[in-house]
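WARN no homologs supplied; continuing
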Amino acid sequence: MTKLSKQDKIDIYNNWKNYNISANLAAKEYGVNRTNLFYLIALIERHGIEILDNSYKDYSVEFKEKAIKRVIYDHETARQVSLDLGLPSQGMLHNWIRKYKEDGYNVINHKKGRPTHEGQRQTDSRASEANKTF
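OK structure emitted
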C-alpha cells in the first residue's frame, strides 16, 4: 500500500465529489485500501479540505482516554469517534484501544522511535581507536 500525498488526497476527493469517480476505482488507481479511502472522503466531508493541513500531532493521555472510553464504555463505533475527532486514520484509535488493553486498561504514552545507544557510541569509538595501527 502506498502513502498518499496531500495532493493525491485532494484529487481523490475532488474526483469523487465532482466527477462521481467511485472510491473503489480510485483505490485501484492509487493502490490503496478502499476502506481507507471511504474514511478519507468521510473525514473531508465532515471537517473540510483543511483537515489535510494538519501535520503530525501528539495526542495527550486525556484525549486518548476520552476517545477510548467513547468506544469501550459508550459503545460508539471507532469509525464514528475517529471521524468526530478528526483523526487522520481510523486505525489510530484501534491501536490506542489495543495498547490500552495490553497495558492493563491504562493509557500510557509510549516513547516513539528507537531507543538511544549513548553508551554504545562511546564503546564503539574506543574500540575503533584501540584497533588502529600506526
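The helical segments are 6-19, 23-30, 34-47, 61-72, 78-85, 90-102, 118-130.
OK
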